[in-house]
Amino acid sequence: MASRDQEVTLLSAWPSPFSMRVKLALALKGIEHEDLPQDLGNKSKILLESNPVHKKVPVLIHKGKPILESAIIVHYIDEVWPETSPLLPQDAFLRAQHRFWSDFIDKKLFDSWIRFLRSNGDAAVNEEFNQNCLLIEGALAELGSEEEGPFFGGASMSFLDVLLAPYAVWIPGVEQVMGLKPAKCPRFHKLLAAASEHPSAKVALPQVERLKKFIRVHFESK
Ligand SMILES: N[C@@H](CCC(=O)N[C@@H](CS)C(=O)NCC(=O)O)C(=O)O
């Protein structure tokens, strides 16, 4: 059990890729916490009070103070519990690179992904998502040494690996339900395969089968 881990509560939703990131960071660092799953169709008082701006999960409440936005939360977790499984690199340039790609993942990759889901499998949007995956592939070649391991962090998961890990279940789920044709990105696929096999991911990520049912109900034929 990591230190400074008293009074940690997570407001989450199981299919939420953003919640998965925070669960994964907590699991990697061995931080005990209370998970309070949220009904996003009927938002709780604690969610509305702790995230009045966006009213979204995840919210990490640490010692009574809410921390918002998944990438910011993962960053915060790494700063408060730096000893176990450090996520951000020490080098300032590499840290800047991680922040750059974090921004790209949340703005571009996620945007094309969600538009693919909402378009019910549009080929042009699939292609746009694939182009963004290819850019991730390029970033992996630039920042991660293949000899050292499958992740941006080499053999261990780093900040960017945590942000991308939810795609390990979301890509196969959407591929199977909505016919997503994933781009040929061998390093990115290796990263996702290694992420899904990671012991912490077994705790933090749901089964693809469970997610497929969710995708059918929420995205198919819309
Ligand atoms: N940028 C936010 C996105 C969070 C987000 O979109 N959460 C969704 C679940 S995946 C949510 O709470 N949606 C509820 C709503 O939109 O009302 C983050 O990284 O935490």
TrEMBL record:
Catalyzed reactions: RX + glutathione = an S-substituted glutathione + a halide anion + H(+)
Domain of life: Eukaryota
Keywords assigned by UniProt, alphabetized: Transferase
EC number: 2.5.1.18
Entry keyword Transferase: yes
GO cellular component, one term: cytoplasm
Gene Ontology molecular function terms on file: glutathione transferase activity
GO biological process: glutathione metabolic process
A Pfam family the protein falls into: GST_N
Tagged with keyword Transferase: yes
Root EC class: transferase
Domain GST N-terminal: from-to ranges: 6-85
Residue span(s) of domain GST C-terminal: 91-219
UniProt cross-references to PANTHER family, sorted A to Z: GLUTATHIONE S-TRANSFERASE U19, GLUTATHIONE S-TRANSFERASE, GST, SUPERFAMILY, GST DOMAIN CONTAINING
Protein name: glutathione transferase
